[in-house]
Design brief:
- This protein has about 200 residues and is mainly beta.
- It has a single domain, classed as Porin (Beta Barrel), CATH 2.40.160.20.
- Helices cover about 15% and strands about 60% of the residues.
- The chain has helices spanning about 1-20, 35; strands spanning about 40-55, 60-75, 75-90, 90-105, 115-130, 140-155, 155-170, 180-190.
- Strands 1-2-3-4-5-6-7-8 form an eight-stranded antiparallel barrel.
Length: about 200
């Protein structure tokens, strides 16, 4: 009887272990951060900087920033992003647009195989156009800095979070005043290897 019980227990343990090995868990991290930010690679992706609805003013806001960059050296990339934004409010709509070249640097300090911290500086132009308003398509300078965190979830894909401090003189509201503000953005970036490389 003891032998039968022992054999049954061994069979159940073996079967449970085999089943556990067959279950494929989704990948949540990849140890490739160093190879992804190497000289000659490309970065493409987008971030969502602002999406929301203000119940008091009945205003809906949505901003998206597609981007592309080239790594001129290990940890350093230059590129450009397109700023696209939309505001719908009671009585009208506002479309915002801009082009902001940027420089991004990934800090080797505090780096890990699965994530990197980075800093970014942007300088460019932006504009906005109010529907049925005088002075449509008002352009101005945009500049700012950002701090961010990239977490690699696959061999060439990273989820990013950024804290941005951006200043613009674009007519982004009813007045012509300049605007400086903090914002949070999340994004998905794809790191493409340069010619002859793989990771």
């Amino acid at each position: 009887m003891k032998l039968l019980f022992t054999l049954l227990l061994c069979f159940i343990t073996f079967f449970a272990t085999a089943q556990d090995d067959m279950i494929t868990r989704p990948q949540t991290t990849a140890a490739v951060a160093g190879e992804a930010v190497a000289k000659g690679n490309w970065l493409v992706g987008a971030s969502i900087a602002n999406i929301g609805h203000n119940f008091k003013s009945e205003t809906f806001t949505f901003d998206v920033n597609p981007r592309a960059a080239y790594f001129i050296s290990d940890n350093a990339a230059i590129g450009a992003q397109v700023q696209l934004g939309f505001i719908a409010y009671d009585g009208g709509e506002d479309f915002r647009y801009g082009l902001t070249p940027f420089v991004r640097y990934y800090f080797p300090e505090g780096a890990a195989p699965t994530h990197r911290w980075f800093g970014e500086a942007v300088v460019g132009f932006a504009g906005s156009s109010f529907e049925d308003a005088e002075g449509d398509a008002i352009f101005s300078a945009v500049y700012g800095v950002s701090a961010g965190y990239a977490h690699f979830v696959a061999s060439n894909v990273a989820l990013e979070g950024m804290l941005n401090l951006i200043r613009s003189n674009a007519n982004i509201d009813v007045s012509n005043d300049s605007s400086t503000g903090l914002s949070l953005s999340i994004g998905l970036q794809i790191y493409l290897p340069g010619s002859g490389k793989s990771f």
